[in-house]
TrEMBL record:
This enzyme's EC code(s): 2.1.1.201
Gene Ontology MF term list: 2-methoxy-6-polyprenyl-1,4-benzoquinol methyltransferase activity
Protein name as it appears in the record: 2-methoxy-6-polyprenyl-1,4-benzoquinol methylase, mitochondrial
Membrane protein topology class: Peripheral membrane protein
Species the sequence originates in: Venustampulla echinocandica
Domain of life of the native organism: Eukaryota
Length: 318
């Protein structure tokens, strides 16, 4: 229990006492070699009194700086992203993603045969992991070959990986699949009330302004449309939480260093998980954006290591 409730200084001291090298040693000395913002414009920038701040992992940075720092992380990890995901989650992320898509049941229709397919938007879609699963489900399970998806991401390197991977699917060059370079906090090229399903998997914790992204999700969804989010969350079992924290803070940055030659990016990834609002708080944020949540609003996966949150845009705003 103590570990589950522990403050960040307590976690730091716990980790120092483990046999793993202290993962925080590198925090202030992070190097983001591919992050021009850091390298050229504001090296070691500290927020001034007048700037709005946010978290970048455990660091407090100016809001204006976070986007560039996150971009640096994902540009660094883009080519090794899948391998590293497998190492980091012991392959479990694939099961979570499969379950996420099954739980949405995209392409389903009350009319038979379905007349028009679902219009889907996968935000922070990166390498297309979720989007290809959604299209497969529409086609193979719900006989909805007219369902379409747009993979949107802020990072051109991650989108390039998605495009590359799409070439080995039947959706390459098909009108069912498109790509959009955009910040989830400002989807101005996506019309209001135009989307049936908005998904975001392991993306929203990286956004600078999560509330703005949720408001955009609400805007672009049709009334009755579904918001579905898969994200790391709060581990519900204290013992598992202690083991999980030790694994994630001790091993993942080290694996990042050994497999991808990049400790700093993976240090950020584990810190960003810790900083992300836990189940209930995130559910409240989804409600504040205007969504109606089914049941309690979320479903824990693997004892809360990850969670699926859903919200429905009401047909008439109450
Ligand atoms: C951990 S990856 C997840 C990729 C994919 N959804 C998956 O589940 O494998 C996080 C993605 O979020 C994207 N991202 C970060 N901030 C973003 C923002 N403000 N708007 C859109 N995408 C963003 C990153 O570029 C990265 O591709």
């Amino acid at each position: 229990m103590a570990m589950a409730m522990a403050s960040k200084p307590a976690i730091r001291s716990f980790l120092r006492s483990t046999k793993f090298p202290c993962p925080y040693a590198s925090v202030t000395a992070r190097h983001f070699a591919h992050t021009p913002f850091r390298a050229e414009s504001r090296p070691n920038a500290q927020p001034t009194n007048h700037e709005r701040t946010t978290h970048f992992g455990f660091e407090t940075v100016a809001e204006a700086e976070k986007e560039a720092r996150v971009a640096g992380v994902f540009s660094n990890v883009a080519t090794s992203y899948d391998t590293m995901n497998d190492f980091m989650s012991l392959g479990i992320h694939r099961l979570w993603k499969d379950y996420f898509v099954r739980s949405i049941n995209p392409g389903s229709s009350s009319s038979s045969p379905p007349s028009s397919g679902w219009k889907m938007l996968d935000i922070a879609g990166g390498t297309g992991d979720i989007a290809f699963r959604l299209l497969d489900h529409c086609t193979n399970i719900n006989n909805s070959p007219s369902s379409t998806i747009t993979i949107s991401d802020i990072n051109p390197d991650m989108l390039a990986e998605g495009r590359k991977r799409s070439l080995s699917t039947s959706y390459a060059h098909s009108p069912r699949l498109s790509f959009l370079l955009a910040n989830a906090e400002d989807l101005h090229t996506v019309p209001s009330n135009s989307i049936d399903l908005y998904t975001v998997a392991f993306g929203i914790r990286n956004f600078t302004n999560k509330d703005a992204a949720l408001r955009e999700a609400y805007r672009v969804l049709k009334p009755g449309g579904l918001f579905a989010c898969l994200e790391f969350s709060g581990v519900t079992n204290p013992l598992l939480d202690a083991v999980y924290k030790r694994w994630s803070f001790g091993a993942i940055p080290l694996i990042g260093q050994l497999v991808a030659g990049d400790r700093a990016s993976y240090q950020y990834l584990v810190e960003s998980i810790e900083e992300f609002p836990k189940q209930e708080e995130f559910r409240n944020m989804i409600q504040t954006a205007g969504f109606v949540v089914p049941g309690k609003g979320w479903e824990d996966l693997t004892a809360g290591i990850a969670a699926i949150h859903k919200g429905i845009k009401p047909v008439e705003k109450s």
